[in-house]
Amino acid sequence: MAEDKSIYCASVTAPVNIAVVKYWGKRDPKLNLPTNSSLSVTLSQSDLRTHTTASCSSTYPPPDTLILNGQSEELNNRTLTCLKLLRSMRAELESSDATLPKLSQHPLKVVTANNFPTAAGLASSAAGFAALVYAIAQLYQLPHSPTELSRIARQGSGSACRSLFGGYVAWEGGEKADGSDSLAVQVAPPSHWPGMRALILVVSAAKKGVSSTSGMQQTCTTSALFQHRVKDVVPRVMGQMKEAVEKKDFDKFAEITMRDSNNFHACCLDTTPPIFYMNDVSRAAVRMVEWINEKAGRRVAAYTFDAGPNCVVYYEEGSGREVAGTFKGLLGGAAGWDGERGRAVEAAEEMAGLKEDKALASVVETLTAGVNRVILTGVGEGPMKVDEHLVDEKGEAVVS
Q: Which residues does the UniProt record annotate as the domain Mvd1 C-terminal (predicted)?
């Protein structure tokens, strides 16, 4: 039989998710098993996405390769684990059907590109590993469900398991030592609460000073407050947040989101040595959200911060002028307002007067000097298969 020299390809896009009940800490670092459950909102891929092409061929020289944003990347242990598990699943299919091409035996070439800064607190690893796992699953034609695939994505990046679904997603921490019950489930699809919006204030596109993996380990071993979070705080708020999503109760959603963000960063500060993911611009964003809610007389905006300084502000579409309009009135000179979503936002021009408000003058000054870009987005769908490949017919990476 002649050697099969075909180049097999599958391409997907996968979304970013931003947690409203945070994942932080691992009970098993090797399997990436979390100390607590978490819940997130999947953001629209029209604004934030990872585009990945998985390809394989007998003509590719070993070993497996990864190209990220045009640069060759060394395959770390977490990536190798994902590839091994997916390859094993394909091999099982091939062993049960002799007519299938032996894709599991071919070297893999994965080419991926983000349309947002990598490693800057914008959940790039979540979208990246979700895209990698989903693309290879498509390449290998695996029949497994997103929940089943989430067990694999979790081992690449914990929060990646949530990016395998759209809408509102829970990562159930699980209790079993083998991690079989630590997986993602969809709490509600995007269509359940389609009016959810997010405004991301990009404070810094630089890499974090303390990586999430390193920070988690330090917090787990040194923070007494963290133990309270794991045992008491998160189990209680997970149920409350699921109920808030089910009822589309933004007031409760906002309260839990902000409290959980505060609690998470308090644990980081309680770490030895303390970890400072937020900065002066982050704190100014918190104060501005508080001012917006005070002015509205109710919670119309909710801030949250992952392991980085960028502020994500959740709000409902009907509160767009009060929330996004306020920030546009203050930060109209920042990049990002020129997109379709940004142009649709009506700036609250009276906000310009805040610069003359002595009580808020320093807040406004810090924000205007520190926010260089805004990203407007909303709740969106999970991974999608696409026809645009990042590998050409010769198997060469295409740099777009």
A: 198-384
The CB density around residue 249, as the number of other CB atoms within 10 Å, is: 16
Total number of domains in the chain = 2
Determine the structural domain holding residue 200 and report its residue range.
196-378
The token pair that represents 77 in the structure block: 């242990």
Q: Do the domain assignments include residue 70?
A: yes
Could you tell me the sign of the dihedral formed by the alpha carbons of 373, 383, 253, 191, in that order? positive
pTM for the full predicted model: 0.94
327 and 294 within one domain = yes
What is the pairing mode between strands 65-68 and 196-202? Answer: unpaired
Residues recorded for the chain: 400
Count other Cβ atoms within 10 Å, centred on residue 27.
18
**pLDDT tens-digit profile of 360-387?**
888 999 999 999 999 999 999 999 999 9
How many Å apart are CA 273 and CA 320, to the nearest integer? 40
CA–CA dist 394, 173 (Å, integer): 43
Same domain, 184 and 234: no
Cα radius of gyration rounded to whole Å, the chain: 22
